[in-house]
Amino acid sequence: MFAVVKIAGQQFRVQEGQNLYVPHITGNTGDQVEFTDVLLTDDNGTLSVGPEVKVKVAAEILGEKQGDKVIAFKMKRRKGFRKKRGHRTLFTQIRINKIA
User: What is the pLDDT of residue 95?
Assistant: First the structure.
């Protein structure tokens, strides 16, 4: 059984026991989270699509990790204008415990 879940504006295909990185979720390591915005489910070949899907996905927070550094560099030639900024996006690692 798998489900397509919307987490923080992005869609993820999840199965029970799967570990994945999602955009930052507030909570501590070991906390249980529940996602109710399920877009699609597949139960042994039976697809359920749309708002009539009444399935919840339970997950556990395993930790946090920063992504790769992204550089935003702006420059205007012949003007002496240079601006270099960078950031590292924070991700949360979760484990899917149950799809029910």
Answer: 98
- Give the pLDDT band of residue 58 (cuts 50, 70, 90): very high
Tokens 């002496």 locate to 80
| Sheet of 2-7, strands arranged across | 10-15, 2-7, 38-43, 46-49
Place of tokens 């992204």: 70
Count other Cβ atoms within 10 Å, centred on residue 6.
13
pTM (2 decimals)? 0.83
What's the per-residue H, E or C state across 45-69?
CEEEECCCCCCCEEEEEEEEEEEEE
Structure tokens at 73: 């560099």
Which residue's entry shows tokens 């919840």? 56
Pairing of strands 57-76, 81-99: antiparallel
**CA gap 66, 93 in Å, rounded:** 11
Of the pLDDT bands very low, low, confident and very high (cuts 50, 70, 90), residue 52 is confident
